[in-house]
Amino acid sequence: MRDFVDSRQFCDSVERISKNWTRERSIDLRNDVVDNSNFHVDKTMFFNLKQINLRDFIRLSIVSWYFPEEIRVVLQSDLREAQSKFSSEDKFLLEQFLLSEAEMLCFLLETRLWHSRDFFGNLLKDFRELNKYLKVKNFRKKVVVPQRKRGYHDQGSRVEDHRWLPKKDYSLTEEQNRIEENRVRHGDTIEFLRGFLN
């Protein structure tokens, strides 16, 4: 925090505020039933986190540590999957909240991103906005009825001459290599910070 805060009081406040909300929400989540015996076959995410923004991701990852274990494990797994849509810098920030509860609290105490008034007044204020992400998705699929038809579906796969594009572009390979190097560098930085915090 940008201002000096008592670490014990700060951790107790985060835990108290988060537990008050997760206690009510975990009862609702335990009562939700998925009406499909094989929902896990091609499941990507259990919760509805496709459209989550950075601020809500941070809030949800903070309170995820105070859910009961059976909800926390699934929620954090979905958060890690949703993390892939953010930029490298944002992934680096979000990783600090998903490492462990102790490292998340240490990061919050040491960071200069928020003032304590801003953190408790805006970030941990009202969790009702997060309810839209914690709805269990419906995994029912529409039954596909095969249709009889003559011939092939694609009706020929040759690309027209004026729409043809080259198959290999070495600039894309160089761009991918640069992205992977950034990813490795961010991973090394996270490991260094974990060693520094421990």
Describe the structure.
This protein is mainly alpha-helical and 198 residues long. The chain has a domain at 1-30 and 44-140 and 183-192. The protein is 54% helix and 0% strand. It is built from 7 helices and no strands. Helix 2 (54-64) packs parallel to helix 4 (88-98). It is flat and about 70 Å long. Residues 39-43 have low confidence and may be disordered.
Radius of gyration, taken over Cα atoms and rounded to an integer in Å = 22 Å
Structural class: mainly alpha
Distance between the termini: 19 Å
* Beta-strand content bin: under 5%
Number of extended strands:
0
Round the mean pLDDT to the nearest integer and report it. 80
- Identify the overall geometry: flat
The number of distinct helices, counting runs of at least 4 residues, comes to 7
Low-pLDDT runs: 39-43
- SSE pattern, N- to C-terminal: HHHHHHH
Task: Give a short overview.
The protein is an all-alpha fold. The chain has a domain at 1-30 and 44-140 and 183-192. The protein is built from seven helices and no strands.
